[in-house]
Specification:
Belongs to the asparaginase 1 family. It is built from 9 helices and 16 strands. It is of the alpha/beta class. Helix 3 runs parallel beside helix 8 and helix 5 runs parallel beside helix 6. The longest helix is centred in the first third of the chain and has 15 residues. The chain is elongated.
């Protein structure tokens, strides 16, 4: 007789709009709901099934950073190891949801579904989207087809891979998109359907209790490179450059990048362009090719903020040779 599959889902709450209500005194939304109170908003929307609640924190997502990621990943890993849990839903503010989802995707070791969701409209709004998104996430959590796909981002009945998901609109409920790659799947009524699986998966074990500092510095017309130098002076172990086009900077930025590379600071080059990623192809000073020749690595299709997370994890144990870093970004 085959073993009975568990149906219990773990709900980890971290704050964000999905647990926010309008404060009558200020007219402004604040994260105030507990996980149990969030579950109570599902009445009349559908049956959440068996859910256990873990209130990890209750903050706006701009206040979530590497320290919280480390603690959250430890909690999620311990829950995923339990035989009585089918999967995990993490509720999160949408501002930095994709960052947290990508971190979890990189460090967690589990075949069980881990679904990150949130809301664009708070619980005081008449069209609060939190209940629909939470129910959708719980359905995915129990779907056998969701196993082995890594961390998923699910809002508005669409499913994205953590690597590909990005917030594209500040208020639209259809905010999370996967760019040129497209959604992994969708949820219609009670049916969870996947159209494809993520082709690119990367795992970097979390080995440190605190992650090394990595800063993001933007290239723009007339950039002096002073912020590259300042980041290194402030103790950054790595710098992600948000370059233009397919990974280019001006000569001043290129000079500053070369100088910090000589000081042992790792540099990854991403782009401000949402699609296409970085690639070599030009030979002018400051081009992606010249930066790579100087010892920087190209981040490929990763956004600057996702490239930063890879670089932080890669540098946990100290400096890493550029060819080894390049292999990580190529995976």
């Amino acid at each position: 007789m085959p073993p009975i599959e568990p149906h219990r889902c773990a709900l980890i709450t971290t704050g964000g709009t999905i647990v926010s209500r309008i404060d009558p005194a200020t007219g402004l939304a604040m994260p105030v709901l507990s996980g149990d109170e969030l579950l109570s908003t599902l009445r009349g929307h559908g049956d959440p099934g068996e859910v256990e609640v873990h209130d990890f924190c209750r903050v706006a997502s701009p206040h979530i950073g590497p320290r919280e990621w480390v603690g959250l990943s430890a909690l999620a890993q311990s829950i995923a190891a339990r035989e009585d849990v089918a999967g995990i839903v993490v509720t999160h503010g949408t501002s930095t949801l994709e960052d947290t989802a990508w971190f979890l995707d990189l460090v967690l070791r589990t075949e069980k579904p881990v679904v990150v969701t949130g809301a664009q409209r708070n619980a005081s709004a008449p069209d609060f989207d939190g209940p629909r998104n939470l129910l959708t996430a719980l359905k995915i959590c129990r779907a056998p087809a969701a196993r082995g796909l890594g961390v998923l981002v699910a809002l508005n009945e669409h499913v994205n891979a953590a690597r590909e998901a990005t917030k594209t609109h500040t208020v639209d409920v259809e905010t999370f998109q996967s760019g040129e790659w497209g959604y992994l799947g969708s949820v219609v009524n009670d049916r969870v359907t996947f159209h494809r699986a993520p082709a690119r998966r990367l795992h970097i074990p979390l080995t440190a209790s605190a992650l090394p500092p990595v800063e993001i510095v933007s290239m723009y017309p007339g950039a002096s490179g002073a912020l590259i130098t300042a980041a290194a002076d402030a103790g950054a172990r790595g710098i992600v450059v948000q370059a233009v086009a397919s990974g280019h900077v001006n000569e001043a930025m290129a000079g500053a990048i070369g100088a910090v590379l000589a000081r042992g600071v790792a540099v990854a080059v991403s782009t401000r362009i949402p699609r296409g990623g970085t690639r070599a192809g030009y030979g002018f000073p400051g081009s992606s090719q010249r930066l790579a020749e100087a010892g920087a690595v190209l981040a490929g299709d990763l956004s600057p903020w996702k490239a930063r997370i890879v670089l932080m994890l890669a540098l946990q144990r100290g400096p890493v040779p550029a060819p080894e870093l390049a292999r990580l970004f190529d995976q």
